[in-house]
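Whether sequence alone determines local backbone shape is best considered at the level of individual chains. The sequence in question and its structure tokens are set out directly beneath this paragraph.

===
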Amino acid sequence: MTQDITNSAPQEQFEESKALENTPSTESVPTTTDYSEMNLKEIIQLFQEMIDRGDQQEMYRCADNIKAAFYKTLKKEKIAAGLTIPISEGIEDSAHKDDDEENIISVNPFAELERGFKELYNRYKVERTSFLQVIERHKEDNLKNKTQIIEELKSLLEKQEDLQHTFPTFRELQNRWKSTGPIPQANSKDLWDTYQFLVEKFYDFVKINNELRDLDLKKNLEVKTELCDKAEALVNEPNIVQAFRKLQKFHEEWRELGPVPKELREEIWSRFKLATSNVNKRQQDYFETLKVDQKKNLEHKTTLCEKAEVIAASEGEDKDWNQLTKDMEALQEEWKSIGFASKKDNQRIYDRFRAACDKFYNAKRDYYSNFKKVMQENLDKKIALCEQAESLKESQDWKKTTDQLIGLQKKWKEIGPVARKQSDVVWKRFRAACDSFFENKSKFFSTVEESYEDNLKKKLALIEELNEYKPDTKQTENIEALKDFQNRWNEIGYVPLKDKERVQSAYRHAIDVKFSDIKSSENENKLVRFRKHIKELQDSSKGERGIKVERDKLLQKFRQLEQDIALWENNMGFFTKSKNADSILSDIEKKIARAREELTQIEEKIKLIDKQYE
């Protein structure tokens, strides 16, 4: 029976080692923290908390990634802040004095952050070095202890004492071996082989009674059965990475245990090996799925990069920056919802996306920087108009100042936009100056409003007189009468606005009825005089050239009158919203009526020239 134990133990150890060698390393498991999304203070805070926790495995796994993320973020924020002096200048050189560092910090606000991070990183390196030194010292101590155990095992094998004395000593040596930690890797295999050989030799050569031997084998079986149960339960462990780590610990415990009964040896090992294979298969499937997901994430992120690059490359001064910004922010939110790509592609695809975002936001910043200059120029122009309007608001030259303010209002409309927070302020200032003048003007003319009713009565009386007038047979008498009526009408002045059109229409109707012959004759006389003028030009040395010049003058005057009418009609819109603007509107309407009448006369003259010289 002892011979069976000796022959089977090395084979079992070989199978266990092979199982451990075939399990994948946890070093390839990606971390879940994305340091690139953090700012400098958040990275430092995270690193500080990690060092305070003192988890050496966590620090070793994350420190270099944190360092790379910190300096990359530092570089980006320095560029965004417009600093031209590298942050590392004046800090890396330890020979610089303290006052030099204080001067650097006052110029570069990031220097203090970098110095704080360096202190943390140096603290980590010191703690890491100290930790490794302690580990190595412990390994050397463990090596001495295990070497001593082997020497004691050799001494035990050389003794020919009774089992009652040798077996407890052997068991105590086994327990000491199990409780002793790891040793340097270079000595591990040889020392383990020596120990295993001596253990097997002990079982072979020591005459132990069947009862104690079977008890030992049974105890080993119970522990290995328990390890099988634990290994089989790992199949249902939600965290596959955690399950793999636990499996490694179970294998380490299995290696430290002695043999089991021969008839159950193959069965128990097959069971443990099957559980190991299931966990390994599950981990392999996990990483295969992870690769597929990472590939899909890379494709998805590549698509987002292409969309971001299209947005960043959009051109045109009239593009909608607000909408493009919303589109870019939507891409960034979608990016955050996507998992990691593979380790070799993750940083590269992130840099590509970040470059497109930076290009867009830099272009947006440049655009609005230039746009602010334009709005400032517009603000300066509008302030100048405010100053001009304010210089006119106390004027009592009502007609001239009215025209000037209308001109300023037209210029105001032609000026582009200004900043929103200043737009209302400058507009209220300009409007206040205009309103001040027109209110003064309205107050001035309000004194004559009391006479509007009297003027209405006078004009109605004059219209009645017109209707009763009997034209004379002599045309000269009628012309004198017409002039008298017109002079008296113009001398009366304004009437209430609600009666203006009615009274004016009645007056024109009465004039047209009583003096239509005179007006027709007057217009005809004007045309006769114009024909005579044209005839004189034709007979003169100017000839047709003079007639052409005359026509061009008429045409130019016709167009000018059209422009004037359009301007007056447009300006009426300014005063419809002003208080007491009736008198101003009346003046403008009279101008428009006279201009239209003159347009008709000019048109008849142009037609006369065209008809005569077709």
Notes: Confidence is low (pLDDT under 50) at residues 1-31, 85-106.
